[in-house]
């Protein structure tokens, strides 16, 4: 039996001003989508006695992005927004299997996270902010390593 060794590299990045703005926008949109989906899913269950799946929320998010008051969601990578829905879906799975409490709303004051998942990134190559000119702390950039902002 062959064992595969997986290796993770963790970097401390020092983004420039433009990169900070892009990350802040991405974090804000990801948090908004997570909170919107949690509210939508909770209301659907208690008011309409309907259970919304990831697919239902994903299609509603697509419609939401086309609305005038939320068109700003289209300014960031769709991958990070879909990942927010997947994170909520996993939070509900953990809740129903007794591993966690009921999912809670995300706050600006908490950890700011966004995931750029490489396997699902089929859109333009520049979806994730470029960190090539960002300084790193102690560790050189490893050739072929992917950056995961989380």
Structural class: mainly alpha
Shape: globular
Query: H/E order of the elements?
Result: EHHHE
Total count of helical runs of at least 4 residues: 3
Report the major sheet.
2 strands, antiparallel
Rg over C-alpha atoms, rounded to the nearest angstrom: 17 Å
Average of the residue pLDDT scores: 83
Span between N and C termini?
33 Å
% residues in beta strands? under 5%
Q: Which blocks of ≥5 consecutive residues have pLDDT under 50?
A: 120-127
Main sheet: strand order? 1-2
Helix-residue proportion: 40-55%
Q: Would you report the number of β strands? A: 2
Oligomeric status: single chain
What does this protein structure show overall?
With 150 residues, this protein is mainly alpha-helical. It has three helices and two strands. The radius of gyration is 17 Å and the shape is globular.
Summarize the model shown:
By secondary structure, this protein is mainly alpha-helical.
State the main characteristics.
single chain, 150 residues, mainly alpha, two-stranded antiparallel sheet, 43% helix, 3% strand
Question: In terms of topology, how is this protein built?
Answer:
Blueprint: E1 13-14, H1 17-48, H2 54-66, H3 78-96, E2 135-136
Antiparallel strand pairs: 1-2
Helix pairs in contact: 1-3
């Amino acid at each position: 039996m062959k064992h595969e060794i997986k290796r993770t590299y963790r970097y401390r990045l020092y983004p420039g001003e433009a990169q900070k703005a892009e990350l802040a926008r991405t974090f804000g949109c990801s948090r908004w989508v997570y909170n919107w989906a949690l509210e939508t899913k909770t209301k659907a269950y208690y008011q309409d006695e309907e259970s919304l799946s990831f697919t239902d929320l994903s299609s509603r998010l697509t419609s939401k992005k086309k609305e005038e008051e939320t068109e700003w969601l289209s300014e960031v990578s769709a991958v990070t927004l879909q990942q927010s829905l997947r994170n909520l879906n996993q939070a509900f799975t953990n809740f129903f299997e007794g591993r966690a409490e009921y999912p809670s709303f995300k706050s600006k004051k908490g950890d700011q996270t966004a995931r750029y998942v490489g396997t699902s990134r089929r859109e333009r190559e520049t979806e994730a902010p470029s960190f090539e000119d960002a300084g790193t702390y102690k560790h050189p950039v490893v050739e072929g390593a992917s950056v995961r902002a989380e």
